[in-house]
Amino acid sequence: MSKGLIVIPIADGVEDLEYHVPRMRLQEIGYEVLGIGLDHTPVIGKNGLIIPVDKLISEISADDLAGMILAGGWAPDKLRRNSQLIELIKAVASQKKPIGIICHGGLLAISAKIVAGRKSTGSLGIKDDLINAGATWADEAAFTDENLIWGRVVADIPAFNAELVKAFQ
């Protein structure tokens, strides 16, 4: 029996490792983890892996979730334009459920306006964006700030996963 549902928003260009590795780790500890997308077309990850879309963003409610992961790559820049996803992220955050954010996934957190006053990290490419959105930048592999679990980049996935496991246990 599943401990609950965790979703990862995906679109073409999602960082394959930031999708697959946390997904598998959370499955190992008993969660159902689904990739949610804008439509049912399989996604092509940044490194060429094909990822099926399990459900549409429009089919998901924050009330049904144990939490979510915001993976990086180029997908967050596309996904942040979807108002339903931004509202979903806001709702999950307002319910204080865990939200894992790694690399460029912070762009989605910025668009959902959930980073102001919070400690953050991610790819150096979004450092200024996070600071401009009111977050405090920390050049650390991974950490948790209340319900937000932050990871810097692909190389930090082991530390990010350790923080995710703590948050979801």
What topology, given as strand order, has the largest sheet? 5-2-1-6-7-11-10
CATH architecture: 3-Layer(aba) Sandwich
Low-confidence blocks of residues? none
Shape field: globular
Question: What is the straight-line distance between the termini?
Answer: 15 Å
Q: What percentage of the residues does DSSP assign to strands (E)?
A: 15-25%
SSE string, helix = H, strand = E? EHEEEEEHHEHEHEEEH
Structural category is: alpha/beta
Mean pLDDT across all amino acids: 97
Overall helicity: 25-40%
Number of strands: 11
CATH superfamily: Class I glutamine amidotransferase (GATase) domain
- The CATH class assignment is Alpha Beta
**Please, how many domains?**
1
The number of helical runs is 6
Rg over C-alpha atoms, rounded to the nearest angstrom: 14 Å
CATH topology: Rossmann fold
The biggest beta sheet, please?
Answer: 7 strands, mixed
How would you portray this structure in words?
- This protein has 169 residues and is α/β, with parallel strands linked by helices.
- Helix content is 32%, strand content 22%.
- The protein has helices at residues 16-28, 75-79, 83-94, 106-111, 127-132, 157-168, and strands at 5-9, 32-37, 43-44, 50-51, 55-56, 67-70, 99-102, 119-120, 136-137, 142-145, 148-151.
- Strand 8, helix 5 (127-132) and strand 9 form a beta-alpha-beta unit.
- Helix 1 packs parallel to helix 6.
- The longest helix is centred in the N-terminal third of the chain and has 13 residues, at 16-28.
- The two termini are 15 Å apart.
